[in-house]
Amino acid sequence: MIRVALPYHLRNLAQIDKEVTLQLEAPVTQRAIIDELEATYPMLRGTIRDHNTQQRRAFIRFFACGEDWSHVSADAPLPEPIASGTEPFRIIGALAGG
Known about the structure:
alpha+beta, Ubiquitin-like (UB roll), 5-stranded mixed β-sheet, 3 helices, 5 strands, globular
């Protein structure tokens, strides 16, 4: 079981309170997580990645085991603690400004 932590605005949109748990087959990748997340919560389609290109939105970041995975291939296997559900896969809303 995979744990996914979403930012407040996406939790609010999906009407969930805490982390999301997903059942995924190996290999566990960013693409597999987002595919299952969008299938389970259709209201999130287009909020995390673009509908057409399937690319991550500019102000969304992905973190696995405390490391930024935003620029790692979407098909790269995630670390074991994510795949086993020990650690959550974090989707963070990035901030900009000065």
